[in-house]
Every structure is written in C-alpha cells, then in structure tokens.
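R.M. (postdoc): so does anyone remember the format we settled on? I'll just put the structure tokens first.
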C-alpha cells in the first residue's frame, strides 16, 4: 500500500458484513488459489499507488471470530477492521467512514465479493475520479427485463388440477409470477464497484437523515442532486453470490477448486 504521497489519495472501504445467505456458507472464506476470497479482493487495492488506507467492515455479531480468521493476513497489508452493519450495507459503509484517514481526498467502496476486477478497470475508475466527483463502473444490460407481480400464482386453473396432473411434489413447479411490464433497457446499465467519490461528497451523502433503501453508494449521492459519472465496467468483475458465481470467478482467475489441487497447495 502507498505511503499516500501525491494529491490523489484514496481510502478504500470494503463492506464484508453480509450473511452470505444465497451462497449457503461463508463465501468470503472460499479458497481462491490458496488464499481466501476476501484477501484476494483486498489485494486488488494493496497494489495501487493511490491507496493510502483500507478499511474492512466485518459482521458485528462475529467480530472477534472474523479478526481471528482474517486479522493476521489483513494486518500484514495494514488493513483496519471495524464492525459493520447489522441489516443493511449502507450501515457498514457509514461505520467504516469514521475509520478512513482524514488525509484521503477520495474514498472508494468495493464489494468484498468482487475479487476479479482487473487492474485496467481500477485504473479507469481511478483516472476518472481525478476529474469527476463521483464515478461508478457499469455494464450495458443485454437481457430483456421484466417487472413481475409481488404475489405468485398457480399456472394451472387451480392447485387441485396441478396436483392431479403432477402430484403434490410438482405443485411448486406450476407456480410463478405474472409479468406486469417489460422494462425499456435503453441506456440501462448494471452497476458494479469500485465506486469512487470525493471524500467530502461521500461524507455529505452519508450525513443525510434518510439512508434507507440505498443499495449502492451512488444512490445517496444522487439524492443530494449531485452528478454521477458512469465509466465502462467489465464482464469479469463478477460479484460472488452463488456457488455458480464462485466457479466463474475461479475460471476467470485461473484458479482450480481446492479439491482439484494437491493437498499441500490448499489452505
């Protein structure tokens, strides 16, 4: 990590307090080439000369366990560990803001489960942040987007008919949601991280009274009426949410699963 020289100094926040519910186990501890996924993500920034400090927001109800598991490796890189949020991601970022060095001119926020962002993507976002107050990467959406009803319904006229045809085990297979509209995907992008902001702007965004409903940091900047610049993201910048995502990330990074490697090369 840099000693922070120069006029563009970045503090990095990595929210890592999620419960990994959809993954089914501790996704941040998954093996990526002999090191935990979380450490691979942190290492994206330890190689950047612009980065002055890194703060990881950990699960508040398992803070000591988190420190015991990752503290030595993160400490080697000078990373600070703080308690994250209980319910929402924005709570973790808000808590971590207090630990960012005041000398940082900019703050980057990056998902802990995105270990495959390339150096080219980081350079692109950081370079744009030198001239724009808020920068986020985004990928154009190619899939057709549908908004669906909140409630589900039986595809058959009634569940008794479905049971008669498929049996009770097939009942769930006949249930679904109605399409309420097709969403115009013109100029729609899927947003990624890292997102980089002028430090004073992000602190002002998090000083707002109502932070509820924010699924990323740029939403809070938008609520201030401030402009947000979108630069090109990349397909390889996958957020690991499911086991299938982990397999994709391993393929992108060229890492085999631990059971496919000799025992002495596992951690």
């Amino acid at each position: 990590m840099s000693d922070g020289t120069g006029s563009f100094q970045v503090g990095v926040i990595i929210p890592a307090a999620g419960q990994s519910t959809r993954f089914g186990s501790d996704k941040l501890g998954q093996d990526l080439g002999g090191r935990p996924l979380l450490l691979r993500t942190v290492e994206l920034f330890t190689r950047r000369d612009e980065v002055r400090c890194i703060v990881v927001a950990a699960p508040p109800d398992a803070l000591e366990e988190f420190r015991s598991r990752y503290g030595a490796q993160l400490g080697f890189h000078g990373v600070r560990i703080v308690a994250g949020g209980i319910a929402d991601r924005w709570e973790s970022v808000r808590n971590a803001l207090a630990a960012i060095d005041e000398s940082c001119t900019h703050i980057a926020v990056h998902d802990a489960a995105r270990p495959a962002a390339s150096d080219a993507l980081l350079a692109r976002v950081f370079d744009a942040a030198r001239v724009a107050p808020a920068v986020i990467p985004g990928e154009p959406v190619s899939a057709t987007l549908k908004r669906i009803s909140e409630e589900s319904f039986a595809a058959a006229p009634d569940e008794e008919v479905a049971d008669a045809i498929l049996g009770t085990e097939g009942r769930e297979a006949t249930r679904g949601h109605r399409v309420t509209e097709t969403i115009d995907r013109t100029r729609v992008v899927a947003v990624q991280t890292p997102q980089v902001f002028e430090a004073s702007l992000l602190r002002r965004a998090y000083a707002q009274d109502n932070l509820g409903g924010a699924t990323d940091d740029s939403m809070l900047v938008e609520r201030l009426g401030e402009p947000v610049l979108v630069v090109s993201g990349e397909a390889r910048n996958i957020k690991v949410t499911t086991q299938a995502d982990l397999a994709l990330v391993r393929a992108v990074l060229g890492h085999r699963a631990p059971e496919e490697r000799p025992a002495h090369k596992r951690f």
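R.M.: ...and that's the designed sequence above, right after the tokens. Also worth knowing: The helical segments are 37-46, 63-76, 89-97, 119-129, 159-166, 199-206, 217-223, 243-253. The chain is about 30% helix and 25% strand.
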